[in-house]
Structure formats: C-alpha cells, structure tokens
Fold:
Amino acid sequence: MGILLGLIFLIIWLHMVDWNILIEYFRNYDLSLIPLFSFFYILAYILRSWRWKIILKPVYNMSIFYAFKVFMSGMLVNYLIPVRAGELAKSIILKNKDQVPVSKSLPSIFIDKLTDLFPILLIIILIPLLTVQINRLLMIIIILLLLIFILLLLFVFFTVKHPQKAFNILIGIERIAPASWRPKLHQFFSDFIAGMAIMQGRIFAYMLIYLITLAAVFSEALYVYFVFKAFGAETTYFRILFGYTLMNLTYILPTPPAQIGSNQFMWVLIFSIALGIDKNLTSAAVIFSHLITSIWIFLCGIISLLALKLRFNQLVSNRK
Structure:
C-alpha cells in the first residue's frame, strides 16, 4: 500500500513539473552551501537524540553520542520500511545491547514521537502571520495532524492519570490474541502502562524537551532555507519554517519506502501551492534535498550500526 501510494504521488508530481526549467535550476545551483545546510540537518538529529535521552533517563541513562547512534540506526530502518519499524528497532537495540526491556523503553519512544507533533501549535501561530494560501487539501492535513496530536496527548494523560483503566482496555485486546501469547502480552501491557508515567513530575524535563524540539525544528528549517537559497529562491526564513515544519509533521502519516513520491508531492503542495514558490524550483530543491538527506541517513545509520556492532537484519527480524 505504501509503494502504491508513493507511485500515485509520484505520477501526480511528474505531471506538475516542466523538466526543461527544472534542469535549468540545477545548472545554476550554488554547491558552496552544501556543507552549511548539511550541518543544520545533522544538528537537528543530534538535538532529537538528546531529547530522547532526557525522556528515557529514569529508565536508562545513556550519553548523547550513544543515543545518537541508536536514534540514527532506527532512522535507517524507518527510511527503508514504511511502517515506522525504526521506532521499535530503537527499543530492540537497547534490549540487545543494554538489557533494557522493550516494554520499558517503548513508552519513551511513544512520548518522543508525540513531542515531534508539538510544532503543530507553531503552524497554527504562523498561519495568520504569513500570507499563506490554505487550500482544502492543506487544511485537511493540518486538521488531521492537530487531531492526531490531541488524541495522542489525551491517551498519555489517560494512561498516567488512570493506569488501571488503561490497562483494562489493553487486556481486552489481549483476549483476542492466541492463548500462547497472552502471558507475555499481559506482562508487556503492565510494563508499558507503568512506563507511560516516565515524565510524571518532571516539570524541568518537560520544558527542556519542548525547547529542544523547537531548536531542532528551527535547525531543520535553516537546512531547507539554504537548500532553496542555493537554487536562487526569493523567500523568507519564516515562510520556509512554516512549510517545512508542516512537511515534517506529515511524516507521522503512512509513507512509502524512502518517502519516494510523497516527499515530492508534499513539497510542491506546501511550498508552491500554499507558499507561492515556483513549482519547478521547489521540485529541483526536493530532488536535491532528498538525495542529500538519503546520503546522510544511510551514512549515519550504517556507521551507527557498525559502531553498535549490529546488523540490519537483527533489527527487522527480531522475534523475541
């Protein structure tokens, strides 16, 4: 389904592009900006690794460098397998390398991904401050992301305030599972609900992880801003901040492998149709950005796996 969705998006995008104009943008590309925007891209993931380290601290204390290696290994899995398998892969790494039970670390990853949705509030703040053409499809995406954020936030609140009720709901799911799975599921659900209280009473940590999230968003927006500038785009940083923050939020939705098709379509939808940047320039920017980010994700992911002394198949075929 992910591959089919990507193909549909890719076909739509291909019909939007004038390839003669797009190629002309590549001929005038400023290569000197590559080190600058690559720095801001990597910095955003270092910040997100630091944020996850803070969330996980009551369960397992690790260095930022170690958190970055685990985080980027998970990113590589996420990039290749379009079902967010990389999130589970991070828990599997901690289980294999550090004997941290999956049920103990998984709540931290759930909260980490929920925190990634926090910038939807920034989007809502920026809409009246910018001249943005909010068409029906873009409005549907914003509303959908906001609803997902609210629902997940309510889920966290419910599990922290009413752990027994949340556990009883999960036990209902357990009853439809095969009998041989039920004892393990029972223990997993019990540990998971207990783990959801990981941020309870940590007011300073809450403030810090949201500040880090904003810093990561600003850093990644700088990366995209310089990509557009390298192609000669006349735009402001705050318009790019709005566009890429919204683009980044859409990654929580189902995506095709390596986001091929969905990236190209969403960039044109957001940066061209909503923000008024030429669609051929945007298409050139997304092609180059996609290439650069793929290189960095593969490079950092493979080096991280090697440093952790793990193989890719150990993360995607783990059955324990």
